[in-house]
TrEMBL record:
<dbReference type="GO" id="GO:0008817">
    <property type="term" value="F:corrinoid adenosyltransferase activity"/>
</dbReference>
<dbReference type="Pfam" id="PF01923">
    <property type="entry name" value="Cob_adeno_trans"/>
</dbReference>
<dbReference type="GO" id="GO:0009236">
    <property type="term" value="P:cobalamin biosynthetic process"/>
</dbReference>
<dbReference type="InterPro" id="IPR016030">
    <property type="entry name" value="CblAdoTrfase-like"/>
</dbReference>
<comment type="subunit">
    <text>Homotrimer.</text>
</comment>
<keyword id="KW-0547">Nucleotide-binding</keyword>
<keyword id="KW-0169">Cobalamin biosynthesis</keyword>
<dbReference type="GO" id="GO:0005524">
    <property type="term" value="F:ATP binding"/>
</dbReference>
<feature type="domain" description="Cobalamin adenosyltransferase-like">
    <location>
        <begin position="3"/>
        <end position="165"/>
    </location>
</feature>
<comment type="pathway">
    <text>Cofactor biosynthesis; adenosylcobalamin biosynthesis; adenosylcobalamin from cob(II)yrinate a,c-diamide: step 2/7.</text>
</comment>
<comment type="similarity">
    <text>Belongs to the Cob(I)alamin adenosyltransferase family.</text>
</comment>
<dbReference type="InterPro" id="IPR029499">
    <property type="entry name" value="PduO-typ"/>
</dbReference>
<protein>
    <recommendedName>
        <fullName>Corrinoid adenosyltransferase</fullName>
        <ecNumber>2.5.1.17</ecNumber>
    </recommendedName>
</protein>
<keyword id="KW-0067">ATP-binding</keyword>
<dbReference type="InterPro" id="IPR036451">
    <property type="entry name" value="CblAdoTrfase-like_sf"/>
</dbReference>
<keyword id="KW-0808">Transferase</keyword>
Length: 189
């Protein structure tokens, strides 16, 4: 079997249900989800060098869900059941809370960086935000998977919390943004 089909040589691609331009907003959105999945793979390669095996398991689960989401986003047929569910969003919220509790309290913005794995997770965070924006734009055209936007929104928060947990686990402080003022308040105030 050959990997190339030559079907896309004229700038078109096949969704599940119709053929569209490769610049279609839906294709841009699920292409960015695919890009995010690749960046997660890069983060996993860095994190394999750490003791954070539970985080690696979570990231692999997210990769599978992103693959499902890409398939959901490519389906305009209306005939298939969405694979990504609200349960995935709820699980992310629980994981965000767990990772957030692993890192020290912050009151200012932080800069991406610290441990290599944490820096890679910050890249994932920014790509997840872009995927969310592109998905929001594409979802105005046709029906979209209902959990796509909530999932991508939580996912960027997940990467932020996980990056901070990686730095904390390594005994490394987050890189604080020094030119700003306090932006986060606590319940203690």
């Amino acid at each position: 079997m050959k990997i190339y089909t030559k079907q896309g040589d004229k700038g078109q691609t096949q969704l599940i249900g119709k053929r569209v331009s490769k610049t279609d907003p839906r294709v841009e959105a699920y292409g960015t989800v695919d890009e995010l999945n690749s960046f997660i793979g890069s983060a996993c390669a860095e994190l394999e060098k750490t003791s954070m095996k539970k985080l690696l398991h979570e990231l692999h689960e997210i990769q599978h869900e992103l693959f499902d989401l890409g398939g959901d986003m490519a389906d305009v047929s209306g005939k298939n059941k969405w694979k990504l569910t609200e349960k995935s969003v709820q699980r992310l919220e629980e994981q965000i809370d767990h990772h957030w509790d692993q890192a020290p309290e912050i009151r200012t913005f932080i800069l991406p960086g610290g441990e290599p794995g944490a820096a890679q997770l910050h890249v994932c965070r920014t790509v997840a935000r872009r995927a969310e924006r592109l998905t929001a734009a594409a979802s105005t055209e046709e029906p979209f998977p209902p959990q796509a936007l909530p999932y991508l929104n939580r996912l960027s928060d997940y990467f932020f919390a996980a990056a901070r947990a990686v730095n904390s686990d390594a005994g490394r402080e987050d890189v604080l943004y020094a030119r700003g003022s306090q932006v986060f308040s606590t319940d203690k105030e």
